[in-house]
Amino acid sequence: MLPQTNPFPGDGPAVDPSQTHTLQWQTLNPLTYQLGESPFWHPLEQLLYWVDIAAKTILRANVYMGTVETWEMPSEPGCLAPAALGGLVIALRNGIFRAREWRGGLDPVTTLPYDTGSVRANDGKCDQRGRFWVGTLDETKTAHAAALYSVDARSGRVPQVQRHVGDALTGNGLAWSPDERTAYWTDTASHAIRAWDCDLQTNTLTAPRTFQQFAPKPAGWTWSPASASNAVPYGGRPDGAAVDVQGHYWVALYEGQRLCRFAPDGRLVAQYPTPAVCPTMPCFGGEDLKTLYLTSARRGRSADELAAFPDSGCVFSTRVDVPGLAVNMYQD
């Protein structure tokens, strides 16, 4: 069992101390990863999948046996999803690929319209109709070249690529409400979570609005024992997310050492301290979907931070009371 840390204060919506709760976090295994992302629970295989973007690796774990398998990719895997016909759909830097089996061949599906020299795939997942949505990341950090795309290859059709949102730096936080009527997406650098009315029948997003706005990172801020004791407060910026069966949006706050749960109307229901300063993305798994898994990052963190949080980069798990939504399958 991991030791509990002091809760970090919220700095977006007003936070009542009673909304801060501790969870009993455990590490999936003692291994650490540079930039863990895109976890999902495969309900048929009973395996947990995720990626290490920086290591160009896909991983999957049998959480019951304690085993982890790795699969090296030719370029950075931003995200992936299970396919209804078996295997995976994978977003790499240079395109979308279909793997019919684990460690099998990578069959090209399509490419996305961006410059692979400065933009790569990032957070993404499938919608309830089986389209694969991929957000991208602008490595220049200035050109606002990141966007949100969907890839529709249902019924064996020629894959159709649609660009939904642009003018971003780091696409993250993609999720849908249980009734499919609301879509969420984040440009992490803006410290904002956005929401849209969603029509999956026509594959359109309308009525954009700000779901949550967090305070910006203070100039020159880095993690230190002083910042951890609130001398220089920073609550982090929104990264990956998941939605539970009640429609609550769970989001990891990168550099904020916390996981927040927001009600559909935007109220902060709870926040939970995490055993890493940089949690990256939650997902729900286990047979009852009440095990919450959380990836984290280690790459680029200071020696002081890693000494204080040696499990940074691990995959964590905890039990929660409300189950999450099952992963959506890619349809082709």
Note down, in words, how this protein is organized:
- There is one protein chain.
- By secondary structure, the chain is mostly beta strands.
- Helices cover 3% and strands 45% of the residues.
- A hairpin with a 4-residue loop joins strand 4 (57-62) and strand 5.
Q: What is the CA-atom radius of gyration, in angstroms?
A: 18 Å
Biggest sheet strand line-up: 1-24-23-22
The helix count comes to: 2
SSE order, one letter for each helix or strand:
EEEEEEEEEEEEEEEEEHEEEEEEHE
Q: What share of residues is helical?
A: under 10%
Please tell me what the overall shape is.
globular
Mean pLDDT: 94
N→C terminal distance: 42 Å
Number of extended strands: 24
Helix/strand class? mainly beta
What amount of the residues lies in strands?
over 45%
Task: For the structure shown, list the relevant keywords.
globular; about 325 residues; four-stranded antiparallel sheet; mainly beta; disordered N terminus; about 5% helix
Write the layout of secondary structure elements.
Blueprint lengths: L25 E2 L8 E7 L4 E6 L4 E6 L4 E6 L4 E6 L5 E5 L2 E5 L6 E5 L8 E8 L5 E7 L7 E7 L7 E9 L2 E6 L5 E6 L4 E8 L4 E10 L11 H4 L8 E7 L5 E6 L3 E5 L5 E6 L5 E7 L5 E6 L6 H6 L7 E4 L13
Antiparallel strand pairs: 1-24, 2-3, 3-4, 4-5, 6-7, 7-8, 8-9, 10-11, 11-12, 12-13, 14-15, 15-16, 16-17, 18-19, 19-20, 20-21, 22-23, 23-24
